[in-house]
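Q: Joint fold for the lines below.
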Amino acid sequence: MTKIPQVRNLVTAIPGPKSQAILTRRAEAVSSALGMAMPVIVDRAGGGIIIDVDGNSIIDMGAGIAVVNVGNSADRVVANVQAQVEAFTHTCFMVVPYLGYIEVCEALNRLTPGKHKKKSILLNSGAEALENAVKIARSYTKRQAVVVFEHGYHGRTNLTMSMTAKNMPYKEGFGPFAPEVYRMPMAYPLRWPGGAHACAEQALELVIHKMEKEIGGKNIAAIVIEPIQGEGGFIVPPKGFLPGLSKYATENGIVFIADEVQTGFARTGQMFASEDEGVTPDLIATAKGIAGGLPLAGVTGRAEIMDSVHGGGLGGTYGGSPIACAAALGAIATIEEENLCARAAEIGAIMSSALHAMAKKYSIIGEVRGRGAMQAIELVMPGTLEPNPQALAAIIKFCQGKGVLILSAGTYGNVIRLLPPLVIPENLLHEALDILDQAIGSISS
Ligand SMILES: *Cc1c(COP(=O)(O)O)cnc(C)c1O
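A: Joint structure:
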């Protein structure tokens, strides 16, 4: 267990003087293009707590954007990384292979949905995993078109930026974008013109119609979708939408790619969110939660697809670094041995009931949604669907002032997303939710 005391405790204002001094250096040394969710400098972190350089203990409701699902510096991750660093730090898997890489691939092949024969490759980031998944799908199908969705987020490289929906801040001024990327309407129940009840059926029909008429099914290499959209605001497609897309893909020789970078590794109460409706992706892209905070990503899928690329066609200097692989084996063991899938479901039930209680009290909450330890509220102008980003900013600021780190999301900048580490003590979770309740109360009159 973490040595970090699991209590919220503020000893200075946020940010304190030591954080402020370092943030001044940050402003001098680091490009101003990088965002910052909370203006403090971290010193140590573990469990559900981040301690800053002034000694403030902050409740972590973001897990580094769903990365430290097993907690910061989790015991098995630390032990494995320490042993690996002493043994060797790098050979390049394509120069001299090592067991850790192979074991992570075996774990991915075992844990991802479907009992068919699977193979994997490892990479450094979520974006790189998506890039490679598309390369593999194009090579396998000998087709070019890639279908993505409104509100989708897939990364910041040229191809994945092109696949990402939102212009500001991800795309503004960064064109030209990659060709042959086609964006389809997303089944977003809250905002579906025909109403939430009709969303699954109408969205599926519309998307299939557009794919047929605007691209042609036989020209589509891949359909790429997040089973629950992350940056887009935790948009949960209604039941039937994902299975319908997957079925269309199969019938038309299209590779169905699940981007489980944010939803993977126990976050939603199952190892992967695709499992919820029994969807078996042809390829699945993973990253964030895979390695307890070390940079690692994977593409896993049907062996015949993964093996269809010519020898030497995939790879990279650092992809599947031995240290990141050691960390991943520690993180995966932690998830399995500590039953973190079940724990994510319990955390989700606590968050969901607290958020629904808030929604009854506060008319700026337009919707509570999510699955497992991935829950969000969408903020609106009372009585309408008009997005309320001003409320979001005020709520986050209030929470930060009380020592609770909460992340935002959403195309309209009006979604509060909760992604606590799955090892957060329950009292801290309740405390953070109470403070969120006070924050929303403070701006609702
Ligand atoms: C974060 C994220 C990515 C990109 O991952 P990076 O490691 O930041 O490149 C891709 N897809 C989804 C769904 C993500 O949440």
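Q: Anything notable?
A: Residues 125-127, 130, 153-155, 226, 230-231, 259, 261-262, 287-288 surround pyridoxal-5'-phosphate (CB under 6 Å). The chain is about 40% helix and 15% strand.
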